[in-house]
Specification:
alpha+beta, four-stranded mixed sheet, homodimer
Chain lengths: ~190, ~190
């Protein structure tokens, strides 16, 4: 993605619960200046977590979302938390599973005007350690799905990880890409 | 996409140049309340514009973006401007072309926490009417590319319309999907 970072001379003009709004005076091509604006939000860490030949997905409800939806485990990085630690914490909280084998698989900036990276990890050999620890804004059921079911999520409207769409879709319809992704996740 | 709209009881807490920040008190599953936040930005209208057997794309530079990038013609809807009018205006301003044959091809909400729709139109039989009218923050060269070159943009990192990636990619590797898209654009 075209990552448009926030320049050093930008000023924080609003700090919300999730989003920060930054503005600066940008010199234009004719020498005039205009106020430019960009946002910052905490990075996101999500996990393709492997239990034998299956992948954990979540059937989720949230209090402000009318219908249930499907996602991978994951969530926002806390302040000063690195994305790998966030991925481990979210996996444990949302599913009760842990892993000792982590790989960063994908890193994306989905929106040009927002300083926001989504890190996707593969966590192999996950083991169930403890019950879920959900907060008051979460209703989450974990499910184990096959690799083919996982690839089918590429075009599922209720699947929230849209940024993974192309890679999953490619693996769904191209044999070589499918084998490569299978090896990355399961081997 | 999972479109999470801004609820009626939300309050505007910040209005920037592009983004508005809205907040509300959300009742959680345990009966407590938490401040929830969502953004609003002007909708975007983009255009697949057809000149004979070619499609117009833009080689763009912007004053705050380090490298040139590729996009379709299009831009933000002005206040109270409907997306079709915005698409027509942007096509004329950025390319100098006009069309009398418009179809809405795609409508997407790319980010869950932002009230923001991207409308993609097909404009057939485009005719060159006048020179570009660029503003002081735009450097744009128009280019005419073939259908195959257009499909290749699906995985081009410098192509800004990421939300069209899956559809273009599907057409690139699936014969039936390719013919369908070709017919939609050129027939």
């Amino acid at each position: 993605m075209l990552h448009k970072s926030i320049p050093n001379n930008a000023k924080l003009v609003f700090k919300g619960v999730i989003f920060e709004v930054w503005q600066w005076q940008q010199k234009m091509y004719d020498g005039t200046f205009a106020t430019f604006e960009r946002l910052k939000r905490p990075d996101t860490a999500i996990v393709i977590s492997v239990v034998k030949d299956k992948i954990i997905i979540l059937a989720q409800e949230q209090p402000d979302v009318p219908d249930p939806f499907t996602s991978l485990p994951g969530g926002r990085c806390n302040s000063k938390e690195n994305p790998l630690d966030a991925a481990k914490r979210e996996l444990l909280e949302e599913t009760g599973y842990e892993s000792n084998d982590w790989t960063l698989w994908n890193e994306q900036n989905p929106v040009g005007k927002i300083d926001w990276t989504i890190y996707t990890y593969i966590a192999k050999d996950c083991i169930h350690k403890q019950p879920q620890k959900l907060d008051s804004g979460e209703k989450i059921k974990t499910e184990l799905i096959s690799f083919d079911e996982f690839l089918n999520l590429a075009t599922d409207k209720r699947f929230s990880e849209k940024e993974l769409g192309i890679q999953l879709f490619k693996a769904r319809i191209d044999k070589k890409a499918k084998q490569e992704l299978y090896d990355q996740i399961f081997s």
